[in-house]
Write a structure and sequence with these properties.
The complex is a heterodimer of chains A (about 600) and B (about 375).
Chain A lengths: L10 E7 L3 E10 L2 E11 L9 H16 L4 E2 L2 E2 L11 E6 L5 E7 L2 H14 L2 E8 L6 H11 L3 E4 L9 H13 L12 E4 L6 H8 L4 E4 L13 H18 L3 H7 L5 E2 H16 L3 E6 L4 E7 L2 E7 L8 H8 L1 H5 L8 H13 L8 H25 L33 E5 L1 H4 L4 H12 L3 E8 L4 H10 L1 H12 E9 L9 E9 L4 E7 L2 E5 L6 E8 L13 E6 L5 E5 L11 H14 L10
Chain B lengths: L10 E12 L5 E2 L6 E2 L4 E7 L3 E5 H5 L6 H4 L7 E2 L4 E7 L4 E6 L4 E6 L5 E5 L3 E6 L4 E7 L3 E12 L2 E3 L2 E8 L20 E4 L6 H9 L4 E7 L1 H8 L7 E2 L7 E8 L6 H9 L4 E5 L2 E2 L8 E5 L21 E4 L8 E6 L5 E2 L5 E2 L1 E5 L5 E5 L3 E3 L3
Parallel strand pairs in B: 15-16, 16-17, 17-19
Antiparallel strand pairs in B: 1-13, 2-4, 3-12, 4-11, 5-10, 6-9, 7-8, 9-10, 12-13, 13-22, 14-19, 15-20, 18-21, 20-22, 23-24, 23-29, 24-27, 25-26, 27-28
Classes of the chains: A alpha/beta (about 600), B mainly beta (about 375).
Chain lengths: ~600, ~375
């Protein structure tokens, strides 16, 4: 299939090969715009007995054929270009099957080039297995042992600014050479190593690693201390992902010949979409994709993109790890009924060993969503720690900064500056009521001031991400019309207050001219119905100790966007957000909040 | 979706199994195709390159990194004993000598003229792979290992702890619903694979370890016991490398759950026979379940496995694998094609099950597993 010109494309078939499920979507041009037509899915077939990813792709496409009532396949070949009601003009794919892209990165100073290298790898869609650095506190032989144990798909070696010292880079290259690492997939090929460090050390690195690894040299990712240059390293990671890793995964060689566009790692594609939204709308965005095994968090603040992956936080394979990391009390704090601890522990473990099961009772759903809150919270904590400004950079201070002592390396993620929070992944995309997704995101991320909430309708951001590389217009149209479900804006005053005191008064003016005065006491949630596609003008007047974005006690005039849930006035408190310690009081409070948003059908029974 | 149910665990009275036995690195294969092997037979052997130690020679000698090669008193590639000097430097007209010695028994692998580090390689570590099951070698993977074919009974568990072991099967309880208690573990369990009923606790497992049992196979185990047994909260179900002195295979799940009747009966029939047991579990990218393998010749055709994975159909026997009917067995009486709403309001594919009392219950298809033979 050759790559057609964008204006010649009438139909697009896109697949995403996930670790458990392969999803296929069909997009067609209807009049002037592109729209999602149908979606099909089938189990991924990377593992035995099939060991060929294309089998699952064909099965998913067959489901699309059935649902759309049109022929797309001729045997095992995708019909292209479209002729009448048969075939498609473009086929594209993303993949995270077989554990995704697993990398090890190395830098000289852990918090400087080590962190930059980590950001480059994460931004390219990789799972970073370890960061090895000169100053990581491990002895040389311990580092060598670790490199040998890991068996990554690829290694990114960085270190030093251009023109700086070369001896530390040489040391890291020597450690790598001594470890003689082997690739995870396929015993018969050399491990790809990307060198993106001090350009003066290229010769030294080549001398030590060229004969032992498939060495690729690219521009320094930290050419000067004050600036990161991650794009060349990220691009090289994508190239090598295709050339080495994908080419050795079962069936991928065949899959690669089906599409004129390179197969992209799934998180890399989702990241592209997030960057596009932030750039086009000039806003700060946080996106989260909570899967069965991992949770990815993306953020774009002040135009800087960051992505982290929490490899062992998820809702099925990794559900037990959420319990291990968050601790039982943290999960139980979201459960609005009594449950015995041993029983809850056994239920979580049973989900881990039978990951494809789903909650049948309301009680089980509530527990699952309680776990999701903690998985999201922990993944976000990890994200905030990595999405930071460059460390080791001297900052120029003016007199006005004297009392604001933020050092270098402060988190870029500012909840008070967040404009849009997008959720994706089974537990958020497929929650029976959209208000459940909204409350899960509010509880886990605790957005401040005014933030809009949205979810990915059926998890198609990966496919749209890769589509945006060849047809940005089509990707944008489908994203806005069929992918993004706007839940509505949330207003959350920040600061301490006393329970029951009026925390927020809002004068609302709806599009139909209707006016309403709302006041919400501290500790309460209030839902205002504003349908999707409509906005409401609001004059927000917080209590004197609270801030809605204009300063403590200052009123703020904003236009709030509606959504399928509505506008949520969240006066439960921020900085701090506190749940009652007493079990009975806590359960009463949770029940009140759930009722305010009409979260569950018959919670009283639970 | 064609298969929105869990295929289920395998319990086969007679099957033909193949197990690949490979080395982590290239080495020597010690057996031939067609050769009969026992579980304990070593089939392949190799040596892993030894660990690496670094010595900052330039610092110790007080010279520049580029001068370290000139200080060597042993050539690269020399075998060194711990404490043996491999480089020396002289200073102050040769009056004071600095020596750089090996920190372990090793070979001098290289010297860096940039960092001044000496790389010392420790002696190789021998690695052997055994056959794991009694059977016949059917394939040799040159330099890597072999495939062994076994004929006999095969039972998969749902979750396990501990690696491969071999022992004689010994049933400790009278029925699948009975809890394995301390009193049921006699003094004659050394080297045996113990079969319990519905539950075992960590306390009882420790008694089994103390009396020399090799493995315990049981229906259910509690998570708080698992934490106590391992000493940590297990986050991701990747097990098999634990060294707890015993291998545990759980056949049904977490909690007190009677072992499936078929599983218990088959284990009982195999009592006294040699069993190979593995607790290795990996529920992610290439599902690996724990297993009990009992090599034995059974007349062909007698309950032979090989029915394949027929999908769910009317009359299929299923087991519920999630609350609220967790562990119950039933027969499929209807497979409505349309999506139906659950109590949670989620719309999913369902099936109707008769639990044997005549009343029909709707269940999500994702929450049942087929009882396979």
């Amino acid at each position: 299939m050759s790559l057609p010109k964008p204006d010649e494309i009438q139909s697009i078939l896109a697949t995403d090969c996930g670790s458990t499920t392969t999803k296929a979507i069909l997009i067609e041009r209807r009049g002037a715009e592109y729209r999602l037509i149908v979606r099909g899915e089938a189990p991924t077939t990377v593992e035995a007995p099939f060991e060929d990813v294309t089998r699952g792709v064909l099965n998913a496409i067959m489901e699309v054929e059935e649902l759309a009532g049109r022929k797309l396949l001729d045997g095992e070949k995708i019909l292209s270009p479209q002729k009448g009601n048969e075939g498609v003009d473009l086929y594209i794919s993303t993949s995270s099957a077989g554990g995704g892209l697993q990398m090890m990165v190395s830098g000289v100073v852990k918090s400087m080039t080590g962190e930059s290298a980590q950001r480059a790898a994460l931004g390219a869609g990789a799972i970073v297995m370890d960061v090895i650095a000169s100053n990581d506190g491990r002895l040389p032989h311990e580092k060598i042992k670790r490199i040998r144990q890991l068996r990554p798909d690829m290694i990114l070696l960085s270190g030093g600014i251009d023109g700086g010292t070369t001896s530390h880079v040489a040391e890291m290259a020597e450690l790598l050479a001594a470890a003689d690492p082997k690739a995870r997939l396929g015993a018969g090929y050399e491990l790809p190593v990307i060198y993106a460090g001090n350009k003066d050390a290229r010769g030294i690195v080549e001398e030590r690693l060229a004969s032992k690894t498939a060495l690729v040299i690219t521009d320094n990712l930290r050419p000067v201390l004050e600036r990161e240059n991650l794009t060349p390293a990220r691009d090289k990671i994508h190239d090598l992902f295709m050339e080495h890793v994908m080419a050795h995964a079962p069936g991928y060689k065949k899959l690669m010949t089906w599409s004129p566009v390179p197969i992209m790692p799934t998180p890399g594609a989702v990241g592209l979409i997030m960057e596009t939204i932030a750039r086009d709308e000039k806003i700060n965005v946080i996106g989260v994709d909570i899967g069965g095994a991992t949770t990815d968090v993306f953020s774009v603040f002040q135009g800087i993109f960051n992505r982290t992956v929490s490899a062992n936080l998820g809702m099925s394979y990794s559900v037990s790890n959420v319990l291990a990391e968050a601790g039982l009390p943290n999960i139980l704090r979201w459960v609005p009924f009594e449950i015995s601890e041993p029983d809850l522990r056994n239920r979580i473990k049973n989900k881990m060993i039978r990951p494809t099961t789903i909650p049948q009772t309301l009680e089980e759903l509530v527990i699952e969503q309680a776990i999701a809150r903690e998985a999201l919270r922990l993944a976000f904590e990890q994200h905030k720690m990595l999405a930071v400004g460059l460390k080791g950079v001297q900052q120029e201070r003016t007199i006005s900064d004297t009392f604001e002592q933020t050092g270098s390396g402060a988190s870029l993620v500012r909840l008070d500056h967040l404009d849009l929070l997008v959720g994706s992944g089974g537990v958020l995309s497929h929650a029976p009521r959209r208000a459940q997704s909204a409350l899960m995101m509010l509880d886990a991320f605790l957005p401040e001031h005014v933030t809009e909430l949205a979810v990915d309708s059926i998890f198609m951001m990966p496919q749209l991400g890769v589509l945006s590389t060849v047809h940005p217009e089509a990707a944008k149209q489908v994203f806005e019309k069929d992918c993004l479900i706007r839940l509505g804006a949330s207003v959350a005053p920040v600061g301490p207050c006393k329970d029951g005191v009026t925390a927020l008064k809002a004068s609302l003016e709806f599009q139909d001219g209707r006016k309403e005065e709302v006041s919400v006491p501290f500790g309460y949630l209030r839902l205002v119905e504003v349908p999707d596609g409509q906005t409401v003008k609001a004059m927000l007047r917080p209590d004197r100790g609270l801030d809605v974005g204009a300063g403590k006690g200052r009123e703020r005039e904003v236009t709030l966007r509606g959504g399928v849930v509505g506008v949520i006035l969240d006066c439960r408190g921020r900085q701090p957000f506190v749940l009652p310690q007493d079990r009975t009081q806590r359960i009463t409070k949770l029940a009140e909040w759930n009722e305010a948003l009409d979260i569950y059908p018959v919670l009283a029974r639970v | 979706m064609a298969h929105s149910y869990t295929p289920g665990l395998k319990v086969a009275r007679f099957t033909v199994l193949r197990r690949e036995r490979k080395l982590p690195l290239a080495g020597d294969v010690l057996v031939k195709v067609g050769q009969k092997v026992e579980a304990e037979t070593v089939v392949a052997r190799t040596e892993l390159p030894g660990n690496v130690q670094t010595v900052n020679a330039a610092n110790i000698l007080g010279v520049l990194p580029e001068d370290v090669p000139d200080c060597l008193v042993k050539p690269i590639g020399s075998a060194l004993k711990k404490g043996e000097a491999f480089a020396e430097s002289k200073s102050f007209f040769g009056l004071f000598k600095s020596k750089c010695a090996a920190t372990v028994d090793s070979t001098l692998e290289s010297i860096s003229t940039v960092t001044g580090q000496a790389i010392l390689r420790e002696p190789p570590i021998p690695v052997e792979v055994d056959a794991y099951v009694d059977g016949t070698v059917v394939e040799v993977h040159a330099g890597q290992g072999v495939t062994v074919e076994m004929r006999g009974s095969f039972i998969q568990g749902i979750f396990g702890v501990g690696g491969e072991t071999v022992g004689t099967l010994h049933v400790c309880v009278d029925g699948p619903g009975e809890v394995l208690t301390e009193a049921k573990i006699g003094e004659d369990v050394r080297g045996k694979v113990l079969v319990g009923g519905s539950h075992v606790s960590t306390k009882v497992l420790r008694v089994a370890i103390q009396k020399g049992a090799r493995a315990v196979v049981v229906g259910g185990f509690d998570d708080h016991d698992l934490r106590e047994f391992l000493g940590y909260d297990l986050g991701v179900a990747i097990t098999g490398s634990e060294e707890k002195g015993i291998t545990l295979v759980v056949t049904e799940g977490f909690g007190e759950i009677p072992m499936a009747g078929r599983t218990f009966e088959l284990l009982k029939q195999c009592e006294g026979k040699k069993a190979s047991v593995s607790g290795a579990t990996q529920i992610r990218a290439g599902v690996l379940r724990p297993e009990i393998v009992v090599p034995q010749e059974i007349a062909a055709g007698a309950d032979q496995d090989g029915a394949g994975h027929a999908g769910l159909e009317l009359g299929s026997v299923i087991r519920v694998i999630r609350e609220p009917f967790f562990g119950r067995l039933g027969k499929v009486v209807a497979l409505p094609p349309e999506l139906m709403a659950l109590e949670t309001e989620a719309k999913v594919r369902v099936l109707e099950v008769d639990f044997g009392n005549g009343s029909k219950t709707l269940l999500p298809r994702a929450n049942v597993e087929m009882i396979e033979s």
